Amino acid sequence: MKRIIIALMVLSAFGTSVFAGEMKKEGSVGIGYVMPTGDVAELAKGGLGFGLEYEGYKINDMFTIGAGLFITSGKGKSDAKVAGVTVDYSAYTFSTWGLTPFIKTEKAIDLAGKKANLYGLVGLGFYNTKTECGGLSASATNIGFNIGGGVMLPLADKMQLGFDLKYHTVSESGSSWAYLVPAVKFTYSF
Predict the structure, then answer these.
(1) What CA–CA distance (Å, rounded) separates 190 from 47?
(2) pLDDT digits over 65-123, tens only?
(3) Considering the domain boundaries, does residue 15 fall inside one?
(4) Which class for 43: exposed (0-12), middle (13-18), buried (19 or more C-beta within 10 A)?
């Protein structure tokens, strides 16, 4: 009975928080350089990353809920080390796409006389990792984690430009697909 009462209290708190928030409606596009870390760093070079984000619900003055879609690509190294042996993976391509809901916190700051927004975010989402070589491919979809932050500077009334740094990690069969992605980001509020 005690658990049922606690569950009802939690559900009622979520129900009231829905009415306390407001729609934010902000879209972003970013492009960056994907730097592999973890196990994939031994096999792959860095590559291009592209991302889209939408923030649609502002919980309160500090927190916003949103979702992102990102795509990365990279080539294999010609001098990869596997179990102490040099292997040529240059014919391989590695790619990842992810659908990542997140929660973001934001703070307005004064940056050299201009208003800027400093933010941090954390998310958990679905990641699909794919490896291709010579017409053959292997892929897997797993749940992964991302954390990041950045700074946005105003360009015009509803537009911002900034710098974003995110770390994505996915564990698959005992190995780690992890990326550090510095990016330039453009945001439009509507």
Answers:
(1) 32
(2) 999 999 998 888 878 777 777 878 888 888 889 999 999 999 999 988 888 999 999 99
(3) no
(4) buried
CA 98 to chain centre: 8
Q: Report if residue 107 sits inside a domain.
A: yes
pTM: 0.80
> Rounded CA gap, 99 and 150, in Å?
20
The predicted structure's pLDDT at residue 151: 96
SS3 61: coil
Instruction: Check the CA dihedral 57-59-64-68 and report its sign.
Output: negative
Which pLDDT band holds residue 4 (cuts at 50, 70, 90)? very low
pLDDT tier for residue 16 given thresholds of 50, 70 and 90 = very low
Please report, for residues 21, 93, 104, 139, 148, the alpha-carbon distance to residue 55 in angstroms, rounded to integers and kept in the order given. Answer: 13, 32, 9, 29, 15
> Which residues make Cβ contacts (< 8 Å) with residue 159, sequence separation at least 6?
186, 187, 188, 189
CA distance 28 to 181: 16
Looking at the structure of the chain, the number of domains it has is 1
Domain membership flag for residue 62: yes
CATH at 75? 2.40.160.20
Tokens (6 digits) for 183: 């990016």
